[in-house]
Design goal:
The complex is a heterodimer. By secondary structure, chain A is of the alpha/beta class. Chain A has 9 helices and 12 strands. Chain B is built from 13 helices and no strands. The chains are: A alpha/beta, B mainly alpha.
Chain lengths: 314, 336
């Protein structure tokens, strides 16, 4: 296993109370795996990603659980050792390429600074690697001399990906990498991520776009209000969703090829400072029963994980 | 960079109308306020014929529009004219006697204000929401609203009168001045390796530059704090951290980004700094341009006051140009 997250809990201690943004989440990832974490805004999917690289800003904190990555347990690592994991072993691609590059530094300087922080290379060698990296993500190598404002959104996201893979990390976490881009560019960036994956990297894609996740990934984990409520093979999960939330989510996605009515999910996700008792989806669930007043168990059905009373093993 | 050169030339040409407007205003105001240099100098008990003769010699009996045109022609041919009182020395020589003192005070006050502002502002930003942060914000408001002569006198009383640590006025103890090279005592003392005059000059500089520095630092504190908080929450800072860049370097990048608006403020503050220097100089009997200007306004020394104003205008224009160039060097998004 490359990555094993065990019962991870990340809290934010705010004035309104404790927000359990990631609550008792477990998942694992093999080398070369492509997993998508899907969910609505505020479901905790980004917090999960940032917890893995331990970049949770105060007042947030990892309150419990373990993260095993490539033989190391990350939650107990010293800050200095963790810094060496970031960038070198886990690469990160951000949502908005317009804001995730430093506007004052040349592309080349930003790439080489990262390189020289982790590996023993001269400035000249680092610049050479930077050029190669840009070429690899489909940009002219002389773009190292450019400043971010001289590039388009798609080009910038390529730079961000080049930077994320320049140290050949084993895991690439992409937090909504295409949300800020138009559809054509989106396609190309996803192709690029796929290429990075073919080189043996595991990819974790954080997205709210169910169709994108279904099309691109091997596995999908659906998050709702801090829980993973369903996880499994992307094809099967899309074709036969088990959890009522996943079903609702799929029915709410418009499909240009199939003439059917879009059924939006009624209601809103709960306030995580005051989550509903029992199952957190209960207030919106069409199939809720008395049982749902208690927290549902996470069960393994036929190789798929689902957290719902409907699938309780009798 | 040729576009930068074109920009610099345009900027300099734009100074011309500014100077003409300023000069016209000063010319008019000086002549509207009662009194003239001749009566200020010799008093009112002198016979009318003598006054007439002196006015004629100074060219003050000519119609105003003639005086105005003659003066403007002089300025644009690089001639600021001669002082109208006492030794009738060339105005430029008078300015050069007083300007180094102001420049020295201004440099020290400026550097001090920027340093104080950056330090207090950064501390506030890194401890956002803490008591230290509130303290720094209160400091910024109080510093900003301080009245220079009042605050200057407070420092004079504390450090000069009660603690007897520092001199309360003047630029140097008579007899201690270094050999004149640039006219900046600190620099001249260093150049001539004169330790006595260096210490003496610095101790005289301490209170006036502290007064000026603290009063002007308030605006920087506020700006640095707000900018730094804003920059620290930007995605690219998080991205640096996510790439495992050391915290020290992340902070450096954050500071660099937060610094850009501060440079803009420096340009704007410089004019305020010169105005503040006038008040500081009169509080600390500092023999600079401010003291000179006030003295010559009292004597209605038309040419000297006009000359000093032109000089100030050119100086402010030059500084804001320098600031704009620094700005362009710092931020690649700015091109002219």
């Amino acid at each position: 296993m490359l990555l094993e997250v065990e019962n991870l809990t990340t809290l934010f201690r705010t004035k309104r109370g404790i927000i359990r943004a990631v609550d008792n989440v477990s998942l694992s990832l093999e080398k070369g795996d492509f997993i998508s974490i899907v969910g609505e805004s505020g479901c905790g999917k980004s917090t999960l990603a940032y917890s893995i690289i331990r970049l949770i800003d105060s007042p947030g904190e990892i309150a419990g659980g373990k993260i095993y990555f490539d033989g190391k347990e990350l939650t107990s690592l010293s800050e200095e050792k963790m810094r060496k994991v970031r960038g070198k072993e886990i690469g990160m691609v951000f949502q908005d390429p317009m804001t995730s590059l430093d506007p004052l530094e040349k592309i080349g300087d930003q790439i080489t600074e990262t390189l020289m922080e982790h590996i023993d290379v001269t400035k000249k060698e680092a610049w050479q690697i930077a050029r190669e990296m840009l070429e690899k993500v489909g940009l002219p190598p002389d773009r190292v001399e450019s400043y971010p404002h001289q590039l388009s959104g798609g080009q910038r996201q390529r730079v961000v990906i080049a930077m994320a893979v320049s140290l050949n990390p084993k895991l690439l976490i992409a937090d909504e990498p295409t949300t800020a881009l138009d559809v054509i560019v989106q396609e190309k960036i996803m192709d690029l991520l796929n290429e990075m994956r073919k080189e043996g990297r595991a990819i974790m894609l954080i997205t709210h776009d169910f169709a994108l996740a279904a099309e691109r990934s091997d596995r999908i984990a659906v998050m709702y209000a801090g829980w993973i409520i369903e996880m499994g093979d992307a094809d099967r999960l899309t074709k036969e969703p088990m959890h009522p939330y996943t079903r609702g989510l799929i029915e709410s996605v418009p499909d240009v090829w199939v003439d059917r009515e879009i059924k939006p999910l009624p209601g809103f996700p709960p306030d995580l400072a005051k989550p509903p008792e029992g199952c957190r989806f209960r207030p919106r669930c069409p199939l809720a029963t008395e049982k749902c007043m208690k927290e549902p168990p996470g069960v393994d059905v036929d190789g798929r994980y689902v957290k719902c009373w409907l699938f309780e093993v009798k | 960079m040729s576009s930068l050169r074109a920009y610099i030339i345009t900027r300099f040409l734009m100074v011309i109308p500014t100077v003409i407007i300023l000069l016209t205003l000063v010319f008019l105001i000086l002549r509207i306020i009662p009194g003239d240099p001749i009566t200020s100098m010799v008093g009112q008990k002198v016979p009318e014929e003598v006054l007439e003769r002196l006015r004629h010699e100074a060219g003050l009996d000519k119609p105003y529009h003639i005086q105005y045109i003659e003066y403007l022609t002089g300025v644009f041919t690089g001639n600021l004219g001669k002082s109208m009182i006492w030794g009738k020395r060339p105005v430029i020589a008078e300015i050069m006697d007083h300007f180094p003192a102001t420049l020295e005070l201004t440099i020290f006050g400026f550097v001090l204000s920027v340093l104080l502002g950056i330090i207090t502002g950064s501390i506030a930003a890194f401890r956002r929401g803490s008591k230290t942060d509130s303290g720094m914000r209160i400091y910024s408001i109080i510093a900003y609203t301080l009245f220079i002569p009042w605050f200057g006198m407070l420092l004079q009383m504390l450090f000069g009168v009660y603690l007897e640590l520092l001199p309360i006025g003047g630029r140097i103890t008579p007899g201690n001045s270094p050999e004149t090279i640039t006219g900046l005592y600190v620099l001249d003392s260093i150049l001539t390796l004169n330790l006595t005059s260096l210490m003496d000059a610095l101790s005289h500089l301490a209170l006036p530059s502290l007064t000026l520095g603290i009063v002007l630092s308030g605006a920087y504190t506020r700006l640095v704090r707000n900018n730094l908080i804003d920059v620290l929450s930007q995605d690219f800072i998080r991205a640096y951290r996510a790439r495992g860049v050391r915290e020290r370097k992340v902070i450096f990048h954050a500071m660099k980004n937060a610094f850009i608006p501060v440079v803009t403020l420096m340009g704007l503050q410089f004019a305020i700094l010169l105005a503040g220097a006038v008040l500081t100089e009169s509080t600390f009997s500092w023999p600079g341009m401010g003291t000179f200007l006030i003295e010559r306004i009292e004597y209605r020394d038309y040419t000297a006051v006009q000359g000093a104003i032109v000089f100030y205008a050119m100086f402010v224009a030059l500084i804001s140009l320098v600031v704009d160039v620094i700005y362009a060097l710092l931020d690649p998004r700015i091109r002219y």
